[in-house]
Write a sequence for this structure.
DNA sequence: CTAAATGCAAACTATTTGCAACGAT
DNA sequence: ATCGTTGCAAATAGTTTGCATTTAG
């Protein structure tokens, strides 16, 4: 556990949202100006492999990262790209019943139009 | 509808799997050697916007493309990266009940270990 | 002490884009 | 004829990597 890794973890804990690697890098530099972008990417990858965090592949733009807590899905607006958590119940259980083995994790992205984008379209 | 676009569509129809843009490009060149990589990418993006096909963001490597038929999920093996379709029932209905608006599409990737990778680990 | 992690910069992969020429309608 | 689409090549975005140096355990 290096200082760099602790800092990255801390930033993710304090930050509610879904940060990209570069956003985490920028926040990290505020507290540790010498930290390298590569270090951030390397640590995020390691933490993902340890399943301390989850990588969210986005329809547009860079990946985002989520500290893994309760499994949940994401609502993605095709209009503006906004992202929100959404609870999902029973999915893992159902899938495990079908495949007969453990689900290690899942990524669910629901594409929809958020209220703001919907009202823009109807104008 | 250009010859190029028709060819790309046809390759996707004939090909059962989950091709990457470059795999489609390679197959397209067999029948139309002059086709440009950019043309393949452009058409795939347009077809995705028209929702004729779906883009699958992969945990590793390039995106893959799926001709959209019945909505379904994907089983991704964290060991070897293999990808398989899996039926999903009731998910869209459940989500729409929660969010109160239409689900345009979704992407569900279940991470697991396929039988082959599981038996390698236990050795 | 030593194995693992860092900083730096260069390399790489996947994808996008500007532009002149071409082709579908 | 016109406007969207192509081929080409260069550009970009995001991420990874090699290597000498530093740091944690």
């Amino acid at each position: 556990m290096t200082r760099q890794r602790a800092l990255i973890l801390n930033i993710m804990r304090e930050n509610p949202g879904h940060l990209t690697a570069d956003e985490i890098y920028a926040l990290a530099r505020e507290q540790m100006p010498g930290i390298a972008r590569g270090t951030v990417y390397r640590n995020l990858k390691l933490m993902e492999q340890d399943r301390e965090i989850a990588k969210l592949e986005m329809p547009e733009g860079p990946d985002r990262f989520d500290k893994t807590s309760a499994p949940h899905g994401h609502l993605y607006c095709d209009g503006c790209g906004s992202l929100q958590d959404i609870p999902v119940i029973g999915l893992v259980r159902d899938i495990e019943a079908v495949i007969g083995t453990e689900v290690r994790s899942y990524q669910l992205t629901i594409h929809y139009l958020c209220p703001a984008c919907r009202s823009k379209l109807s104008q």
Summary: Residues 1-3, 20-22, 37-38, 41-42, 45, 61-63 of chain A lie near DNA strand D (CB under 10 Å from a C1').
